[in-house]
Batch of 4 targets.
Target 1
Amino acid sequence: MEENKMAVMPVRRLLLHMSWPMMLSMLIQALYNLVDSMFVAQLSTDGFVALSLAYPVQTLMISICVGTGVGVNTILSRRLGERRPAEASAVAMNGYFLYLCCWLIFLIPGVLFSRPFLALFSDVPQVVDYGSQYLAIVTAGSLGVCMQFSGERVLQASGDAVGPMCIQGIGAVVNLLLDPLLIFGLGPFPRLEVAGAALATVIGQLVGMTVGLLLVRRSRVLVLQTRGFRPSRSVILEILKIGFPAMVMQSLATVMTLGMNKLLSFFSATGVFILGAYFKLQSFLFMPVYGLNNGLIPVVSFNYGAKKRERITGLIHFALIIAAGLLAAGTLLLLLVPGPLLGLFNADAAVLADGVPALRLVSLSFVFAAVGIIFSSSFQALGCPMLSLILSLLRQVVLLLPAALVLGLLAPRLIWLSFLLAEGFSSLLALVLYRRLYRTKLARLEE
């Protein structure tokens, strides 16, 4: 039987081989999210604020998809590492079923409660109108993003590095092309404004879903049989056991964004706009690291299933070096040109006055964030999702929000230092947890 490359390829080459397509595709994904917001900001300030307020709900949707994907990816890779292909195929099929359930979960509350949700954060009628239109469309059409995620995770776990890039990249390009046409009504297209941005997003995701289904059907590693399929309670519970903590962990970004929006509204007239712009920029800077994570999880899980300790540690250490280097470059960018970056979103003089020092302060946390992100994914891949959950709770809620409140009371301009305090402490804790995990788990693996 031919050896899987995840078992024999040199670890640094393997990590780069598995990660670069996802890093590129997620960079494209972040680019169209950034351009999406830039187009809407050109439309009006109310439109940009509406998208900023809708952002936590989109983050929650992605969090559930990512968490489910962590469970599918981890268990599927482990089954392949243990040379149990039939059980691996069963995991993939039950993963598709779970993602279909995710779409139904998003559909109903998204359509019914978009307007009441927006009204909690804004009393500006135009902002509420724009935001509720956007959320209703992206939640109703979320079948595309759900099934797109399932295709990506199945292909990653089976060692296909290029397939996920094609899924995300093609969908992102479609979105990018449709955005100006549907927002501004160019040529034969109607002017739909913010609703056009949402519709472009949904169409791009549906295209990505279609590409994913075609690529999974052509897979040589897994043979998926839809005829006679019945959901397996034991497999679903196993996926959720790994994936649920990851869902909660990813959902903390929603809690953090909502909390920071509320706090900033108390201390600054420009804070919500600055935070919205920051998150768009951050997604662009951090996406390559998340792509690296997507390549790291299946190869660590595979080698953990194959009991190859040295390969596991080599992968994690190399991932740390790459992530820290990428986010150090991001820090440098925000330190040098924060004003032009805010200008991408039509920032006025008041936003620039508050936003330039804010971005510089936040950027100091980036390298520490790289450490937390890589170790968090490593803990998931090694079957310790609760460690990842603890780490993310500290990074995004337990440390960040109280620190932001205290610093805001001391001096509103210092509130942005809360990111550095939370990330710095969390990265130190991550190192301690990793050393403990090595002694108790990795050191006992047979080579």
Target 2
Amino acid sequence: MAFDVPTTRGAYTSLSDGWTYLNAGQRAQVPERVISAMTSSFRNAPKSLAGETGGGAHGQSRRSGASAAEELALSARRAFADITEGPVAGVVLGSSREVLIDQLCAAMSRRLSLGTNLVISRIGSQVVHAPLRRAANLYGARVRVAEADLASGSLPAWQFDEIVDAHTRLVVVPAADPYAGTVAPIAEISRRVHAMSPAWVLVDATDLAAYRHVSMSEMGADIVLVDASVWGGPEVSALVFRDPSMFARLASLNFDHNVRGVGRLEVSPVSPALLGGVSESVHHLASLDTRARGSRRHRIETAMPQVAEYLSDLTERLVAGLSNLPRVYIIGFDEENASESVASRRDYIPRVSFLVDGVPAETVVGRLLANGLVTSVVDVAQSPLLEAMGVGESEGAVGVGLQPFNTPHDVDQLVRAVASLG
């Protein structure tokens, strides 16, 4: 069945303002149902609720007199569990990825001491890398970096055999690079890491989850990090542990040392109003296939492959159009093998960064805005990969991020606007 773009577009009232949004990597558009849910949560969070008995895979009984805020937190945990295929009891909520990584490293302080190793990679975002490096400096762990192929932006798995050893305690790998769109071979990396060391593998699946279904078991991840804002949800993040018993191996950050489970890490409360939007944002992803039935997780597994296929076609169209422009260089795109490179974009998420020779990125973005197209100037300081590629020495890069509501017309309009720069 062809992906239903008109119905998807109808879920976003923001699309009626006349702009064409191609900046999902910087700020995703929010479905109307998510906005309504957060508005309702603001009003209802202080209330108490009547008790009831839940059902389903993640159902639980609710005690009489429980606050609506508690129920909103539980619904957010269930939603993140459905997104990652992890256990509800393993979901740690936080206001951002940076906050959660800080909390995890503090809880792992004894495991990240002198003589141990912490492995990060060249792809991903500084939002995750910065707190990891701070923690290594604070607790004494040595940081090792898995390098990316600077021509394609891919992350070879074989190198983890060389940089991971028995002293490695944590390996952090993004599932996809948010700027070049590279998808990492997470399952292969996890297999190699677990064969070489007792380290936990933490996968930042944030950018991948917006376009594909994520499975902790398939990736072999011990912990998955996700941020709902990237797929159009509120600014709420979660660390999902594959086994709740892992919390017992972490130092408690809670002043109450009798707290067990997620309470050992959750020391920064998240607004109940924001938590109320998480579940609706996941419902939105599950409803992208209007014909799918069954549990929310099953509907996500049905809908997201359709989203991935549709947006892969749009990305191919975008890359093919831009690659025909003589002054445009697409980051991670091999000009010598153009036809093969376009086809390989199916292994990427729909994020594209490009340069226009002799034209500053801000000028390009300004020209696109004049044509009703919203893109973004890539902040190279936030991308270890682009920084290593030397993009910072140019006049900046333009970032394009697609969402399921984008159309071939949007892509063609972008290519024509870039071509008008000469």
Target 3
Amino acid sequence: MEALWDPGSQALLDELGVGQGWRCLEVGAGGGSLVQWLADRGAHVTAVDIDTRFIEQFASDAITVRRVDIRTDELPQSEFDLVHARLVLEHLSQRRQILDRLAATLRPGGWIMIEDYEWSCFGFEGQDRAIDTVTEAVNAFMARAGFDRDYGRRLVSDLDDAGFCDVRGEGRARVVGPHDPGFDFFRLSFESLRNTLVESGELSREDADAAASRMAGGVRVFTPLMVAGIGRRA
């Protein structure tokens, strides 16, 4: 996922002028690629996640690693020049309240950049009932866990509502095949849920097997739209 989306995220952060001396909060730091990139540009990065096992190795004078639940844990106040989160808020039902909490961590004039999916353009190459059925079953499963597949569509207006100024947004999407960065995310996400969906009766074994065969056979994925919402604290 980092290989798929990092170049676009980095280009937007470059436009904001991130660099030497910036203090940055990376929320949901994941595997740490953007943490490293920000630090390499001379920023000090506070990397937070509820699971820090993939980023603890990066702790240094330039990178502070903290295990944090942004829904409930105390956050620094008026400290950062940048807050960035990618594919985090769409999973959290309190997302609008969390935006207020993140806004409070920014110093006046600091920037926030939130990136989340909007799924209306997602699909697989060609016409395939089994894959369409799998997509619907996976989305329904995630929705029950609090996932909002259309949050990207509301992200920019939420930044407005949270009181940010200079608010703007943009979207980007990719078409990826089995050998392209990011394809394995979609394949492995399905494989991780496959047995659960079949055992619960939400997906037939035949449809699951057919979809797995199509993914292994070279079908391309039209990714969701990655929407970036950007705003500045007044």
Target 4
Amino acid sequence: MVDDNSKAKIWAPRSVGETRALYADWADTYEDDITAMAYATLDRIAEALLTLAPDLTQPVLDFGCGTGLSGIALKKKGFSTIDGTEISPEMLVHAKEKAGPDGPLYRKLWLGTVGEIDVAPGDYGIIVATGVISLGAAPPDILPVLAQALAPGGLLAFSYNDPTLLDENYMSAFNGLLSDGTASQVFRENGPHLNEAVTGSDVIVLHRT
């Protein structure tokens, strides 16, 4: 279990090895802990996509799927075909356990490669990265990797929590996608991420040009 002192350090720069160790230690209690902190971004991203996605049956890639909470939020909104990838083997075990009346939550699940997306460009028209691209997790340069992997006209939905919004490297990666014409912003809204005592977030949806 991750103690309160460790949680306070989640949104801070660290090495890949340190990040993996954090989530390996946290995997078994992650869902209880994050639910207790009122994790709202999951549902906010799913709701935003519901208003923008032309087809809820098209495959969605849940990048950095963790234990599967993001997949659950998407499924509740009607997205029927969800694949997931995650770099933490311990978190992935819990995602593989998720199932409903129609079978497993995820159509496909795989252990991801750090810094890569492990899919061919155009395989997905929707990519979701809920709470993934942030200080202490995926670096800013993964954002253009995800955008460029989308099919033309596809949607990339992600969140920047408050500490990440203040980091110039993350904002530069975001602004670069808009300025170079790779993508356009079609949705952005600030709101709760975890409870107010922890952090808020911007939910952002980009359209691949």
